[in-house]
Amino acid sequence: MVSFDVLTVCLAMIEDENDKKKFEKLYRTYKDLMCHKALGILKDNHYAEDAVSIALFHVAAHMDMVEHVESIRTKHLLMTITQRVSFNLYKKLKREKNRMISFEDIETVEFPAMDMAEEFDDFVSSKILELSSPYKEVILLKYADGYSNREIATLLELTVSNVNKIVTRGKRQLEQALKKEWEHEINR
């Protein structure tokens, strides 16, 4: 779906030869998955291609944040960036064209539960996955993938202040969900 020209432009943006090789492998490994994610949100092939191109430009500009191409952390990062760019494009299109797309049509965010279960207790993982967006995204990027608030702000094109608020509110939501579940278990 994404044209060869996007790959050429992205590679031209990257100075380090090792990063170029890494980006090319990343592109070939994840472009179809990124397109699928964007298409699920935008419901239009051309807009999905635009969203993936923007996401790839963003990744090319921040190759220092990609350590291992085939890691779950990299996959999660790319899906989060693609989702964020797609939602931003969706909002822009809706404003510009008064295009009506039901939020029921938008795919829910899915993160690989099996991979997360290795790092988190199943109970806590399920509660994190139940958090609403953007809390779920930011909490996962911060605690599951180890990104700093500044890195998350850069990746998601937010201010550090916004990320700090999202982390605080997300932790509060998670704490409340865990307390509620704990109280329910005690009262059984």
How much strand?
under 5%
- Please count the helical segments: 9
Query: What Rg, in angstroms, do the CA atoms define?
Result: 18 Å
Fraction of residues in H or I helices: over 70%
Give the low-confidence spans: 99-120
Tally of separate domains: 2
Query: What do the pLDDT scores average to?
Result: 79
Record field, number of beta strands: 0
Global outline: globular
Cα distance spanning the termini: 52 Å
Taking the sheet with the most strands, its summary is: none
Along the chain, the helix and strand elements come as HHHHHHHHH
Question: Which structural category fits the helices and strands?
Answer: mainly alpha
Would you mind describing this structure in some detail?
The model is unreliable at 99-120 (pLDDT under 50). This protein has two domains: 1-101, no CATH class; 108-188, Arc Repressor Mutant, subunit A, CATH 1.10.10. By secondary structure, the protein is an all-alpha fold. The termini are far apart. The chain has nine helices and no strands. Helix 1 packs across helix 2 (17-42).
